[in-house]
Amino acid sequence: MPRSNNRINLCALISIPLWLLVNVADAWWIYFYVQGTVNPVPHTAVNHTASAWTGYKVMMWLFGFVWGVVNMCTAWILLSTTSVNSGKGVARFLWVTFLIFMGIPIAILFTIMPFFGPWIVVPIVQRQIWKHGCDNYPMMVILDAKSTDDARYVVNVAYFFDNTRASLPTQLFTYEITNPDDGDVWLFSLRTWDSLQSNIPTEMYPTLQHVYYDFVDDSLSGNCTLRNPTNPLTNTTTLPCMTGHFNPGSHLSFDVSSSVPLNTTLSTEAQSVPVMNASLGIHDNGWDYTGNAPAVRLQEKNDDGSLGFLVLKTTVQKPSDITELKVCVAGPEGREGGTVSAEVFAPLGLMLMRQADYALDATSDNDSD
Fold first, then answer.
1. Which of 37-41, 81-85, 98-102, 299-303 has the lowest average pLDDT?
2. Does 165 lie in the same domain as 96?
3. pTM for this one?
4. Residue 352 near residue 312, CB atoms below 8 Å
5. What's the CA gap between 191 and 173, in Å, rounded?
6. Residue 187's domain is classified under what CATH number?
7. Are residues 265 and 343 in the same domain?
8. Do 55 and 182 share a domain, yes or no?
9. Is the separation of the CB atoms in 117 and 330 below 8 Å?
């Protein structure tokens, strides 16, 4: 009999640490899933391709179901065995109290988390990032795409917010993406002012109010609107101020030449605005996975081709509303008015197009369900 007890004790010494080790490994499995969902870029080994990410998720769900059943059986055996030997009187009372407030909740946690954990954790983290993911950036943008339930006249828009103030972000203006002639040229342009123009900080006032995307040759062009006191009708003049090219494929990139002035610049002074040349790129391929919202960390390219300063990045979709995607904007490094520069507007228009594609596809799937 003692020899049999020794074998049981040895088995317990081996199996319990192994059981705990597998639970720790499963927790890391869920952790990388949460990170890959709410913070997909830069890519990691688990989401470097769409197929790898799909395989990772499927295996996590399958293993989570099996391991949840194992944990449930383990918890049942442990609680049943210890309950038999819990004694009587005060000891019994203390044991029952422990079960109610700690034992059973822990058992439930170990049972449901392997399979349901991702569904529980992701929304919590998503809400936190939606609220605070852009706290360290001077501007944030919400890309709001139409769903299949929206009326035909609803357009895809981008809301721009001043994020520098201690209070809640202040909405400044709205841009829209349109296809005026139903052809190959798309337009990202100013739609409305959402604050008094006089209250918008100079470095956040957009003079680049029209960005054109020609998908025949992947070229960019843009016009700036400047004050012109000599124009008695509109008091403004529109002048070309941006050219460039873009690669909308898997490895997103932009080459932009621009002379975007601040709002304090008069149209007669436009020629004095220096021309800025910039190349932007991303580290990871697959910024527009099919079936997923755009995921971008767009950075300036250094002279040697390496990636440098972060210009903008996507964060998460709005909880409970997959049509909205938040973007944190830093702008080019060290440039006044960088948050409303060509390096910001040119990528955002294309990203809004891809967000629109994703929103229609995703809400169409939801409707069919």
1. 81-85
2. no
3. 0.87
4. no
5. 8
6. 3.20.90
7. yes
8. no
9. no
